[in-house]
Amino acid sequence: MIVVMSPQATHEQTELASALLRDNGLTPVPAKAADSALLISEGTGTPELTASIERSAGVERVVLVSGAQRLTSRDFHPENTQVTVGGRDGVTVGGTEFLVIAGPCAVEGPQQMTTVVDVVTAARAGMLRGGAFKPRTSPYSFQGLGVAGLALLAEQRGRTGLPVVTEVVAPADVERVAEESDMLQIGTRNMQNFDLLREAGASGRPVLLKRGMAATIEEWLLAAEYLMQMGNSDVVLCERGIRSFERSTRFTLDLSAVAEAKRRTHLPVIVDPSHSTGQPHLVGPMSLAAAACGADGLLIDVHTNARGALCDGAQALDAAQFTDLMDRLEPVVEAVGRMLAQPRSLAQV
Length: 349
Ligand code: PEP
Ligand code: MN
What we know:
- This protein has helices spanning 11-23, 47-55, 110-122, 147-160, 174-180, 194-201, 217-229, 256-264, 273-277, 280-292, 319-335, 344-347; strands at 2-5, 29-33, 36-40, 59-63, 83-85, 91-93, 97-103, 127-129, 164-167, 183-186, 207-210, 235-239, 269-271, 297-301, 339-340.
- A hairpin with a 2-residue loop joins strand 2 and strand 3 (36-40).
- Helix 6 (194-201) packs across helix 7 (217-229).
- It is 36% helix and 18% strand.
- The protein is an alpha/beta fold.
- The chain is elongated and about 65 Å long.
- It folds into two domains: 2-63, Phospho-2-dehydro-3-deoxyheptonate aldolase, domain 1 (Alpha-Beta Plaits, 2-Layer Sandwich), CATH 3.30.70.1140; 83-347, TIM Barrel (Alpha-Beta Barrel), CATH 3.20.20.
- The strands form three sheets. The protein has an eight-stranded parallel β-barrel, surrounded by seven helices.
């Protein structure tokens, strides 16, 4: 059950509604959505309880939700959520536009960033990616430039007008990363780092939530609940491949999860064909398939010197491959009634 208090409800009215739920054996958890306080419980109680909560002062509505999801469910929010990244001049994902986010796996230095960003901008990507804090499987691998990497990303945003997304791995870094980027990425390895999710949810920035490599769709959506519970409805899900017995691809891209997640939730869903397949020749076909099956966008690794890349060079597209992919993607995007997203600051000119 979700109890939505009216924006004008007083703290006392919320407390009274909460007490009524507790008196009836439920354990309400406080949450927020836009201007309203929410009370969320795992159970639903009786129809009589619903009726008396609905009559309580300050209560706007009661939503009964089936299954484990609450705020992410279409019962709570039937229409597609559109997430705007980068403010008024930024891009929107989840509507009619199809958002391509591209850039290197890791920010390596000013020259590398300028070269890659020039390529993806010329090919009409709508947003930039680049990791400054890298969650590497081995502690001996390049761990990212950290704060210096954030500054290089911000420089590219200033130069191009494209919003940037970058990963945050520690709750203590959320504030800093939120200040210097437009969107926080939570990686596959941290999908169930609940302290990190709460902190990112409270940051006020949109969040890109990757699916855990061994997470079910339900676990992924419940991780998104942690973000939304903090009052953040700007959440974009990213399917990035799951572990299977198959070794010829890095992970197994689960495109059925895109259609299924979109059925169960109003949140936008994008696809990462780079980390999932691990191979440039599979990135193109999977990108086209993602657009065709209803994904709202893509997250693609691009590097102009893959051999020298400090992280995940083997899966990156080079300049020609990315440009060619964007050309082939556009008609598929148009065939499903959408158009490539561009920041509003650039679309005007
Ligand atoms: C990434 O996008 O840089 C990344 C590390 O992805 P994932 O968390 O999906 O492995
Ligand atoms: Mn990577």
